[in-house]
Amino acid sequence: MDDRDRRILEELRADAWLPYAELAGRVHLSASAVQRRVEKLIARGVLQGAHARVADDRQTLIYLTVELRDDARATVRGFTESMRASKLVESAHYVTGEADVVLTLRVTGVPEYARFVEERLTGDARVRRFRTLTSIRQLI
């Protein structure tokens, strides 16, 4: 991967829906050259799809660090499936450090978040504790 590939990836991170012609102009290549590079990035597994965020009333971002009672495979798998079943969870990452899992939720506000906590966390025997961080605004 060279600097042009990295620049293509940077542009696609910002807007995965860019037409090849516009992307080509931004990275100073022809549209066909950009298309070939994108296809190679996909084939190599570097570029793994485009995602759309649908506008709705869920504008509040909540980050949760979750400490599980143990790190047994069944515990992690069960917790993961529970989080996958929630429409509020945008992402879940198994991490190292003080927490085991970091969740990103997109909610309409505190009442919806409170329901999530009651339904998905406080009653879940796999969860030892969790901490909440609420996004005030995105900086970058």
Q: What do you see in this structure?
A:
This protein has helices at residues 3-14, 20-27, 31-43, 73-84, 110-121, and strands at residues 60-68, 89-94, 101-107, 127-134. The protein is α+β, with helices and mostly antiparallel strands. It has two domains: 3-43, Winged helix-like DNA-binding domain superfamily/Winged helix DNA-binding domain (Arc Repressor Mutant, subunit A), CATH 1.10.10.10; 60-134, 2-Layer Sandwich (Alpha-Beta Plaits). It has a four-stranded antiparallel sheet with strand order 2-3-1-4. A hairpin with a 6-residue loop joins strand 2 (89-94) and strand 3 (101-107).
How far is the first residue's CA from the last residue's CA? Answer: 25 Å
Low-confidence stretches: none
| Separate helix tally | 5
Q: What's the main sheet like?
A: 4 strands, antiparallel
According to CATH, the fold-level topology of the largest domain is: Alpha-Beta Plaits
CATH class of the largest domain: Alpha Beta
SSE series: HHHEHEEHE
Helical percent range? Answer: 40-55%
> Using only CA atoms, what is the Rg?
19 Å
The portion of residues forming beta strands comes to 15-25%
Query: What's the CATH H-level homologous superfamily of the largest domain?
Result: Lrp/AsnC effector binding domain/regulation of amino acid metabolism (RAM) domain
The main sheet orders its strands as 2-3-1-4
Q: What CATH architecture of the largest domain would you give?
A: 2-Layer Sandwich
Shape: elongated
Q: Give the rounded overall mean pLDDT.
A: 91
Q: Tell me the structural class.
A: alpha+beta
Count of folded domains: 2
